[in-house]
Amino acid sequence: MSIRNPVAFGASAVLALALSVTAVSAAESLIDVPSSVCQTCHKEIYKQWEGSMHANSVAMKDPIHGTFYKKVIGDPLQAGVTTKDGKFPVCIQCHAPNAAIQNSTKLDEKPTYSEGVNCVACHTLKRFNGINGPNGKLQLGMLSYERSSGLQGPAGFPVGLQKLATATDMFGGAGAGDGGDKPNPHLGEPVTMDGTEIPALPMEPNATLMKTNDACMGCHDKRNNSHGVPLCATGNEYMASKSDVTCQYCHMPMVGNTADHSMGGGHDGGMLKRSVVFTMRAEKAGETIDVVAKLKNQQPHALPTGAPFRNIVLKLTAYNANGEPVWENAPEHPAQDDPQAYFAYLLADDAGKDAMPPTATQLGADTRLRPHEERTLSYEIPAKDVALVRGEVQYNLLWKVLADKFGHLPEGLRSSRTIAVAEAKI
Known about the structure:
It is a single chain. The strands form seven sheets. Strands 13, 14, 15, 16, 18 and 19 form a six-stranded antiparallel beta sheet that branches. Strands 11-12-17 form a three-stranded antiparallel beta sheet. Strands 1-2 form a two-stranded antiparallel sheet. Helices cover about 25% and strands about 25% of the residues. It contains 18 helices and 19 strands. The termini are far apart. The longest helix has 15 residues, at about 10-25. It has two domains: about 5-155 and about 210-260, no CATH class; about 270-425, Immunoglobulin-like, CATH 2.60.40.2360. The protein has helices at about 5-10, 10-25, 35-40, 45-50, 65-70, 90-95, 95-100, 110-115, 120-125, 160-165, 205-210, 215-220, 235-240, 245-250, 270-275, 335, 400-405, 410-415, and strands at about 125-130, 145, 150-155, 190-195, 195-200, 205, 225, 230, 255, 260, 275-285, 290-295, 310-320, 325-330, 340-350, 360-365, 375-380, 390-395, 415-425. It is α+β, with helices and mostly antiparallel strands. About 35% of the residues are buried.
């Protein structure tokens, strides 16, 4: 953020920024650079990132992840925490990457730890080595990357020709983005912004990583539990689709000249609504109504994807002329009442019964929509008193058993979100 009017900005905020910059000056590495420093120039990008799940990925900020972390690992504010077999918690490699790099489990120890996937966590990734390690074990998150001692960007700042022409221009073409000409710390020298000293934050071009799936797959390819059961496998799903669409195309679309750093996913209502095409027709045939519902997955990976407890439900309801329901496909739970209307990735134990992610020993049923799949669901329902048939596609972040069990979570995380609706008058 450019502080052109300190009075309007607020003295306390100016002081906080000055203190953060002082801390950066004494930092041993870029890992200690908080995102507030980046906010100085990249105001809109910072605002987008601050509201994203990446910024809230750490166990203290993401209630769902935090619940599992506390049950499986322990206190996220405690140093030296290990798994039951004495290993460093692998989930930190993705959810708190800066802490993982410095081998810390005390996730409030430094600002950059509690910032989750912050600016430097992504912009110091230099090369993706894949998640399949040479020993046959998965190397996840930060372990799958070669990191750089300098910042990486999609294009860097190719201003060599400009420097030749304007060797004495301190701005060096730094204004590309959101505020006109500014001193640019990415050119390799410290600068002063409105009286505040910003350290040198050199940036080199790395389109191979920053503009491809390589930037994402360290954390979003696949993740197994201790029994080797894949808890999520978005990367495998994407590769099976044989799509050329990159992650950034959907999750970081260009807005003007800048990539959107909101990075919306399963928590983002807009992203969910555009993920599926839902159509429905209903025709009366004597004493029954024939209903045909179609769901088309728009994405190059399964729908839903990511955490295994995410699921989608098709809720089909018939109403009378007074708007009162007279029939529905799944009054209790679609897994039992209407299995075809339940799109989920289930895990199982040795006996084939449903299991939680940490204890699952095998895959259960996978009824999700495959990449770009269109699925047709057919129903024959009683026509008596029916004036309208309404279909709702509902997205859930949790299996119902978990939503009921984790009553401490905010209601918005435990309840369904309607992402598509279709109606047919009878």
